[in-house]
Amino acid sequence: MWQRPAKECPFNKADGFRYTPDGTPVCVHPERVGLPVGAYKSENAPLTVELHLPPGPSDVAPYLHDVLYGAAPVLLDDLISQAHELIRRDFPTLDPLTVLRQALS
Q1: If you average pLDDT over residues 68-91, what whole number do you get?
Q2: Percent of the chain surpassing pLDDT 90
Q3: DSSP code for 54
Q4: CA 86, CA 59: separation in Å to the nearest integer?
């Protein structure tokens, strides 16, 4: 269930966007476009996301599938690089390339 937009960011009927009280335009549902919540433009926040692999090796590919298919395209290179490093570190018996292929198939 999606959360409703905050009342602090009223809808402007003239242009169809929502704004903070100081006039900064906002995306009220960033998760719908695959981005974590963040003030990217207004506060120059970096556009990044941090992976947290599940504890069980059999859960890694399904987790990555959900993350990668739900992510904004601009985040994919970083997510794949993080996944490769984390799989090698956290699950040395798994082949990162095989797991990523499973996640992306």
Answers
A1: 93
A2: 47
A3: -
A4: 14
